[in-house]
Amino acid sequence: MEQTDRSSRIAWAALLLASLIAPVVVGFDKYLIHVGIIISLNVALATSLWMIWSLGFISFAHAGFMGIGAYTSALLFTKLGLSMWYGLWLGAAMSGAIALVIALPLMRTRAVYFFMASWAVGEVIKRNFAYFRDFFGGWDGVFNIRAPKLDLGFVEVNFADRLAYYYLALFFVVLTVLVIHRINNSRTGMIYWSIHENELLAQHAGINVFRHKVIAFTIACALAGLTGALYAHYQTYISPKSFDIWKSEFALVHVIVGGLTTVGGPVAGAISLTVVDELLRATGYFRTVFFGAVLIAAVLLLPGGLETIPGRLRSFFKRSDK
Amino acid sequence: MTNKKSNLSRRLTRRGLLKQGSMAIAGGLAAPAILPKSAFAQTRTIKIGGAVPLSGPVAYWGQSTMQGFVDGAAVMNEAGGIMIDGEPYMLEVINYDTKGEVADSRAATMRLVEQDECKFVYSQAAASTVGMLQVTEPAEVLSIVACWGYLELFGTDYPLHFRGEMSDYEQGFAYMPFMIEKYGKDALKSAAFIGPDDQDGIDCHFSYERLMKHYGVEQKAVEYYNWEDTDFYPIVAKTIREKPDFIVTSPSPPGITASIIKAAREMGYQGPISSPAASETETILEVAGEHASGVILPVTNINPSSPTQKAIEKRFLERFGTFNALAGNYSWWIYALKAALEMAGTATDTKAVAEALAQVELEDTYVGRTKWAGKNAYGLNRQGVYDCFTTTIDDGKAELADVRFPDLPDTF
Amino acid sequence: MTELLQMALTGFNLGLMYALIAIGLTLIFGVMRIIQYAHGEMFMLGAFTLYYWNAEFGLNYWAGVGVSAVVIFCFGAILQIVLFRPLHGKNILYSLAVSLGLVLIISSSGQILFGTTVKGIPSAVTGGVLLGGTYLSYERMVISAVSAALIIALWFFLRRTTTGLAIRAVAEDPDTSALQGVKTRRIHWIAFGLGSAMAAIAGCMMGTLLSIVPTMGFLATIKAFMIVIMGGLGSVFGALIGGLILGMIDSVVTTTISGDVALILSFVVIFLILVFRPSGLFGQDWE
């Protein structure tokens, strides 16, 4: 156990180091840095979805809450002129607040029904962005959402520069993953997994299941909102279509392919599948077909997901030692 | 359209299945492979990039657009490339899929501009265009797209941005005069609009409003349907309750237009229905059956007749296994670009090429005469205008009924 | 008055077709406890089978509907055996991911194989009567009748035949029914095939009434899920009621208010139903 812990710590450190020096490795290729930013955002989204999963359910409203964060930050910028430094936190807060209110009735539903009800929630959120045209801009969306500047006194960093934005996104992704990792490894995390394993038993053991579910859902949605704000200021344009069901589904797919039991799963899944999608772009017509094939193959041939690879390798080498 | 003809073209389609598969590889995977690179090791290359929806719900439009460029480039390369300032240049077409999404299109365009260093790009449909423009204008890359709405992203602020396809607005100056001739002005006093509930629908309603005002037509019902809708009875019932003289269904795709026509006719509505986006006559005939009558389809040339048009149809069938009128409509863009490159005498200075392109007028393309207009409306001549081939469907038969250059007002 | 009648007729017709798609989905969930996200793709493939049979090769329409049902039954059964059987008993998310992959593969290869242009299947029945402003289309009447007949037939099949009873037994309690000698593996592929065939027939009906494209499956999936959630997963009767509710909302609200309100309203209705009856209108409490 201790050895696993140490090697996983080494793996995390290596990943962090790799992502820090990645721009240098790719020779500051602007396009690859863009891919890096997309990977970061996908990792953040998938990880926060995984946090909900640690309680045993899956939300299809995740893209919707990401949208709430994105729209809050974007409208604060375009209507009130407040920069992303406000939008990030207010977007997350707004997303969390709405999640809290919705979670109260939503948590009455269970298992598959939760899944479906959350899908309806996500769809209504998206539809509202389109329906209230005067406020949210309708299907037209919101344009000119600029990235912020940071005056450090001796130097001014303009995050419209892609490299700067990469490190900004990386910072918040690391923050998101760290927060979720800490919660997961704490006593609260154990409570979550006990709810995941057996809700009824957890309830009888004196755990307030409902409260834990609502709080975890709120935190995860607030983190999704934060990701949404980062997304909006990077893409500079958002519309209701940016937050449709497919976004939630792809986040879910990242979690499944990566692995369901550790926080490393969604991280690995989001990184690898985003890279695969990017590699497939040049295949034109076949892009979607190939992506679907990769997805099915990953699920069928690698049960448990990417997170099981280290364990598999270890047992493989142990066997060959003998 | 006679049965024989449609059967023939269908058989070609079926036979083309395999061909289509291989074409997909030729077109999508390895469009650059069309160029035997070694043979032209000495010649220079101009890269043209496409960030188009090749998969997803709007793939039909994306693929049709791509075909024009792949075919045009192959034709020009076979003829020895294009001569710029006395030097031959080969064309290389690179295509990336955008799934018709804004963010994905932005990414595809970045890859074209930043990695492949394309100076000329093209795109299709509003979402892909919105994503593309954020990249191309700051990077001084020339773009040619088909996009009907988002007029705030067009004109003076986007000098390198060309819209090659006539929107429903420009088409209106051809199909409205035609309809007035066909039905008489008294039969067209009021109109209704049915469009999808998204930005395209809203923008097309805006064009429709301006157009109806121009022709003094009273505007009655305005209805938007959801893309999730399957049945059009409710929306059509609501529209015809107000008894408009005719209905405009832009920018509804052929399938939805056909459903609207069928529903309207079944519920006893008699007036003409004009659809500036539904250029698949066969679909409409199949879906609406005996109800397909009084249908006006602008920019739909179902009957290639000139040698140029016939040659394009033949080449597309050979190369891609299919040909549709829409792909024909987009096929002139690359020829206009070629003319502009030759006129500007440079393959790198996109501003000069854009200036030249705005002046390019072609005489003999799939859509007849083409030019760029819109100076008074948008501040610059960036909107493609060309002969509008209008097909009508009456009593279950489709025929090319009218060819005319849009009668643009002075304010355009 | 005539307007009301027209709305009611349209809603009823739509509702029955929706129910036909949804019943297949609810059957598959009930028996296998998997979320078949690619259900709409079966709907699409069913419509295209009929298209090639009828419009391309010019063979008999109704025979084509049967052929389509058989072809999609086999296809569904094969999918179940090859892809979903290995995942049986595992986390529901794995089968969900596989069916999502299937959605991507089937709809995109549909675009490559069938082409991206919209197609139409010529109607087998045409004409209709205008009764005091209300239009009765024969085609719609036939489609409603076929849908209703199929739903009733399925209901009898599940209650009167050995296989039907076995399906219900497996849905109720797989372990006990296995102990009683029911071959659960066989029941799984039969139920999957049957559910897919229902979707295929719905695809034939709707494809004739409307038009067909390779990407149309996703729409059907959305509608089917909305209905199944409303009615309760695993409940055939619930799917019928859910279908009719959705059809009526689509028809009445769109005609009287507008399309976007209809769509938002149907999601709100789903949400409210789930909040007050967390297992849908007629669903069991699956754990």
Textual characterization of the structure:
The complex is a heterotrimer of chains A (322), B (412) and C (287). Chain A has helices at residues 2-25, 30-53, 62-80, 84-106, 111-131, 133-136, 162-185, 187-197, 199-204, 209-235, 245-258, 264-280, 287-301, 309-321, and strands spanning 149-151, 156-158. With 322 residues, chain A is an all-alpha fold. Chain A has a domain at 29-244. In chain A, a hairpin with a 4-residue loop joins β1 and β2 (156-158). The longest helix of chain A has 27 residues, at 209-235. Chain A is globular and about 60 Å long. Chain B has two domains: 3-166 and 304-381, Rossmann fold (3-Layer(aba) Sandwich), CATH 3.40.50.2300; 168-298 and 390-404, Response regulator (Rossmann fold, 3-Layer(aba) Sandwich), CATH 3.40.50.2300. Chain B has helices at residues 3-29, 59-78, 102-115, 126-136, 168-183, 199-214, 233-240, 254-266, 281-288, 307-320, 325-330, 333-344, 350-359, 375-378, and strands at 44-52, 82-84, 87-97, 120-124, 142-146, 161-163, 190-196, 218-225, 246-248, 273-274, 295-297, 362-365, 368-373, 383-386, 388-394, 397-404. In chain B, α5 (168-183) packs across α6, α8 packs parallel to α9 (281-288) and α12 (333-344) packs across α13 (350-359). Chain B is globular, with a radius of gyration of 21 Å. In chain B, the strands form three sheets. Chain B has a seven-stranded mixed beta sheet, sandwiched between helices. A six-stranded mixed beta sheet of chain B has the order 2-3-1-4-5-6, with helices on both faces. A three-stranded antiparallel beta sheet of chain B has the order 12-13-14. Chain C has a domain at 13-119 and 128-216. Chain C has 287 residues and is mainly alpha-helical. In chain C, β1 (128-131) and β2 form a beta hairpin. The mean pLDDT of chain C is 88. Chain C has a two-stranded antiparallel ribbon. Chain C has helices at residues 2-32, 39-56, 61-84, 92-114, 138-160, 162-172, 174-179, 184-209, 217-231, 236-256, 259-276, and strands at 128-131, 134-137. Chain C is built from eleven helices and two strands. The chains are: A mainly alpha (322), B alpha/beta (412), C mainly alpha (287). Chains in contact: A-B, A-C, B-C. The interface between B and C is large, with 50 and 47 residues. Chain A: Keywords: Cell membrane, Membrane, Transmembrane, Transmembrane helix.
